[in-house]
Amino acid sequence: MPDFAPFFVSGLATAATYVLAAVGIVVLYRASGVVNFAQGAVGALAAFVSWAIVQHGGPDVVGWIAGILVAVALSLFYGRVLAPRLAYGDPVMRAVATLSFALILLGFIDYIWGEAPRKLRLPTDTSGFEWLGVRITYTRAVAFGIAATATVAIMTFLARSRLGLQMRALANNRDLSAMLGVRVLRADAYAWVISGVLAGVSGILLADLQRLSGIALTFAVIPAIAAAVIGRFASLPATVAGGLVIGVCEALLTPVPLIGPFRTAVPFLFAVIALLWMQRRATYVYR
């Protein structure tokens, strides 16, 4: 019987990065109605920018800040320049547009840096503490702490701030919100900024916890999307729970010989189960 404790602890840290990305996806969807498949690619570019600055002798903090700023700039560029032109288009078309943007970013990353093995190392990797008999680096603890803090902060922001209420109103009816005085483009812009910040932070953390790979980080959007599906792109608590479960299940399946090679299918499995669960009432009505 394999010792699952190290994999459980590792899964919690990875799950925290999924939660960050998923929260960004849900916030953006609630404000603009866009399912952002470019979340992972934006985070990937942020991680590569951070790595490049550190590799050229720049301070770690400067690299992190620059990476996050690049993620915010890219997200805001898409939100203010491209997204408004698709605002009244078909939801599938808007989602495909973000996927196209992700592929463009992935192509740029591959052209500049390629897919050579790399690792983005953070100073918090060198120290840690013991829990459940497993050594936990401060990077893993920080990842989990950031995910928890960001989720609580965003939930409070959406529930109590004026801008948060405006962003929630946009999700219900953009035209009616505009008629009532909501500055649609301004609220949209803030949603894209939040999405960019969370994409940048999750990308940098995931590049350290796993590996710095454009393809791997771009496709990390899949478990984030699956977590958002579990939350029905509306409930942040359900999204957080979904991200944690997906990340932990992926990690716990790693040492299982027969199932481990297929652990990447876990997000799809949870997404399908969630979709079937959400459609059960419609099925009963049809019958």
Q: Topology, pairings included?
A:
Layout: H1 5-32, H2 39-55, H3 60-82, H4 91-113, E1 128-131, E2 134-137, H5 138-160, H6 162-172, H7 174-179, H8 184-209, H9 214-218, H10 221-230, H11 236-253, H12 266-278, H13 280-286
Antiparallel strand pairs: 1-2
Helix pairs in contact: 1-5, 1-6, 1-8, 1-10, 1-11, 2-3, 2-4, 2-8, 3-8, 5-6, 5-8, 6-8, 10-11, 10-12
The count of strands amounts to: 2
CATH class: Mainly Alpha
SS content category: mainly alpha
What are the secondary-structure elements, in order, as H or E? HHHHEEHHHHHHHHH
CATH architectural arrangement? Orthogonal Bundle
Q: Kindly state the mean pLDDT as a whole number?
A: 85
Q: Segments where pLDDT lies below 50 for 5+ residues?
A: none
Distance between the termini: 46 Å
Largest sheet, in brief, is: 2 strands, antiparallel
Total number of distinct structural domains: 1
> What is the helix tally?
13
| Gyration radius, rounded | 19 Å
Strand content: under 5%
Lateral arrangement of strands in the main beta sheet: 1-2
CATH topology: ABC transporter involved in vitamin B12 uptake, BtuC
Q: What characteristic shape results from the CA principal axes? A: globular
What is this entry, summarized?
The chain has 287 residues and is mostly helical.
Description:
This protein is mostly helical. The chain has one domain: ABC transporter involved in vitamin B12 uptake, BtuC, CATH 1.10.3470. The protein is 73% helix and 3% strand. The protein has helices spanning 5-32, 39-55, 60-82, 91-113, 138-160, 162-172, 174-179, 184-209, 214-218, 221-230, 236-253, 266-278, 280-286; strands at residues 128-131, 134-137. A hairpin with a 2-residue loop joins strand 1 (128-131) and strand 2. The protein is globular. 44% of the residues are buried.
